[in-house]
Recover the amino acids of this structure.
């Protein structure tokens, strides 16, 4: 018997159990095969439940597990590293019609996935205050400065109150006080071993995305100011430095 | 009993952490929810075991805590994703990741399963059975030879818990494993719970089954809890769930095994419904009591 048939039947509950299975007591081996089928799907759904805890709280366990089950059959893991399973789950949620009553669900899921990525990202130390002082002392180079950001950093710009919704489920904020329709931008990063979720302005979010793409400070700040004339460059750089999120300075503009 | 090449890290730490082999003591699976308790209390335990794949990440808390815990305790690295029983060749990238992990943490033991867990591009996240015949034997031996070659050390192969058997099988599981051990020189990780589960599921006598394994090659034992189900005929069907305390029948089979093998490193596995650390530590101590009894009997 080819293991292909076994594998296909595991991932498609509508297929019959593979032929060629036996049981010592002559009982129907299909019933026994169900143990494997169940182990596989439950382990995948459980893995998603571990990553998307707040998403599960928002929709309730029953709907979450039904949704996760459909996702797992449609998108079984292609990596043996289960920590990162579910990268397409936020997109899947967005097109999952029973969840349309919660339009913010996909963005909350994305925020949760980015937290997992940040949790396991590489350890890179932030630049010290002296390195920053040295560069800042030379105004001429400042707009041309390119910075490297910590590998854990990401931005989730949402039309919904993703940060507040997430915080409410950590017990930091009353859920009743959250207006889900308010647009929020989340900055996710790991400082040391702690993953943090911080609310920043949409302009600051765009600024950080530009920096990540290798844009120099001057051009990134111009982009951010175009979004919001009140963009506060000093405040966001201060925040990034405080969180050890700037890991290298490249005054000549080249990140290598 | 094992000929695995040991590594002697030069970093400071508890002497046992740098021994060449796992001690014949009780050990526990390392769980993130227990990282801090372990470092704060440094419990008296023989070793910790990790699932290799959980630590194939770039950085962050897992490596932060494991590095510290490793400086105090011997370590067993247990793979769940290599798919040694799989039809395709081993995933060389996965072997590379294993090599990196093993170089970094210098574990006393590396083990994997007699099972497959991926097929084509898909990872199934479960330990799946294969027929015991000459084709599977050749494949498993080739895969283990490749692991030995790539990692430069001897691996242990774990006997599986199974729920079905194959019409295409031509050999008993114990004979199959005996042949793999003989051909590849790998060691045996004898999962006593898996023996009990499989014997119940396939109508066999667990003690005779233990006796049929190549016991001289056994280098480690696993113990775990099972869940109960029934098959289509109403016969008991046990599930290797790792979600409950070890059953008394499995403790009894463990004692029976130790009488034959002598004391061996013994891991308590719990991967679901993980209780407080103290609960698992008590199970490891229970194993240590039996190991102690077995030592006295061996000495007498």
């Amino acid at each position: 018997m080819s293991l292909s048939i076994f594998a296909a039947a595991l991932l498609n509950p509508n297929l019959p159990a593979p032929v060629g299975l036996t049981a010592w007591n002559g009982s129907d081996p299909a019933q026994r095969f169900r143990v494997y089928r169940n182990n596989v799907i439950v382990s995948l759904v459980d893995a998603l439940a571990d990553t998307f805890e707040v998403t599960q709280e928002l929709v309730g366990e029953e709907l979450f597990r039904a949704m996760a089950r459909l996702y797992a059959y449609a998108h079984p893991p292609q990596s043996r590293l289960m920590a990162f399973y579910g990268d397409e789950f936020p997109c899947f949620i967005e097109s999952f019609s029973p969840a349309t009553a919660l339009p913010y669900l996909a963005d909350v899921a994305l925020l949760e996935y980015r937290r997992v990525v940040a949790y396991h990202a590489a350890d890179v130390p932030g630049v010290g205050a002296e390195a920053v002082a040295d560069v800042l002392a030379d105004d001429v180079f400042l707009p041309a400065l390119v910075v490297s950001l910590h590998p854990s950093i990401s931005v989730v710009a949402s039309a919904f109150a993703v940060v507040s919704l997430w915080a409410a489920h950590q017990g930091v904020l009353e859920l009743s006080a959250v207006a889900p329709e308010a647009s929020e931008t989340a900055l996710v990063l790991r400082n040391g071993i702690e993953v943090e979720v911080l609310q920043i302005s949409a302009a600051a979010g765009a600024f950080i995305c530009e920096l990540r793409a290798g844009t120099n400070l001057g051009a990134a700040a111009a982009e951010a100011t175009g979004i919001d004339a009140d963009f506060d460059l000093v405040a966001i750089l201060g925040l990034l430095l405080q969180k050890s999120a700037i890991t290298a300075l490249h005054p000549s503009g080249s990140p290598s | 009993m094992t000929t695995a090449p040991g590594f002697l890290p030069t970093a400071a730490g508890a002497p046992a952490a740098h021994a060449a082999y796992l001690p014949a003591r009780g050990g526990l699976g390392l769980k993130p929810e227990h990282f801090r308790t372990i470092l704060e209390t440094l419990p008296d335990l023989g070793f910790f075991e990790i699932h290799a794949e959980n630590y194939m990440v770039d950085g962050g808390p897992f490596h932060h805590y494991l590095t510290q815990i490793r400086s105090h305790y011997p370590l067993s690295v247990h793979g769940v994703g290599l798919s040694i029983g799989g039809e395709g060749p081993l995933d060389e990238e996965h072997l590379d990741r294993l090599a990196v992990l093993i170089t970094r943490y210098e574990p006393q033991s590396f083990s994997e399963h007699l099972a497959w867990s991926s097929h084509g591009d898909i990872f199934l996240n479960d330990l799946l059975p294969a027929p015991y015949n000459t084709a599977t034997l050749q494949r498993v031996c080739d895969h283990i030879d490749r692991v030995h070659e790539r990692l430069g050390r001897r691996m242990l192969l774990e006997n599986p818990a199974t729920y079905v058997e194959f019409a295409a099988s031509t050999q008993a599981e114990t004979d199959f494993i005996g042949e793999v051990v003989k051909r590849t020189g790998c060691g045996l990780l004898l999962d006593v719970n898996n023996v009990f589960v499989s014997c119940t599921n396939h109508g066999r006598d667990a003690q005779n089954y233990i006796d049929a394994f190549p016991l001289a090659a056994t280098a480690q034992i696993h113990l775990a809890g099972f869940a109960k189900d029934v098959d289509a005929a109403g016969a008991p069907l046990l599930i290797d769930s790792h979600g409950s305390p070890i059953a008394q029948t499995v403790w009894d089979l463990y004692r029976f095994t130790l009488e034959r093998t002598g004391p061996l490193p013994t891991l308590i596995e719990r991967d679901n419904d993980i209780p407080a650390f103290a609960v698992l530590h008590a199970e490891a101590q229970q194993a240590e009591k039996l190991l102690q009894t077995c030592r006295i009997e061996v000495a007498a």
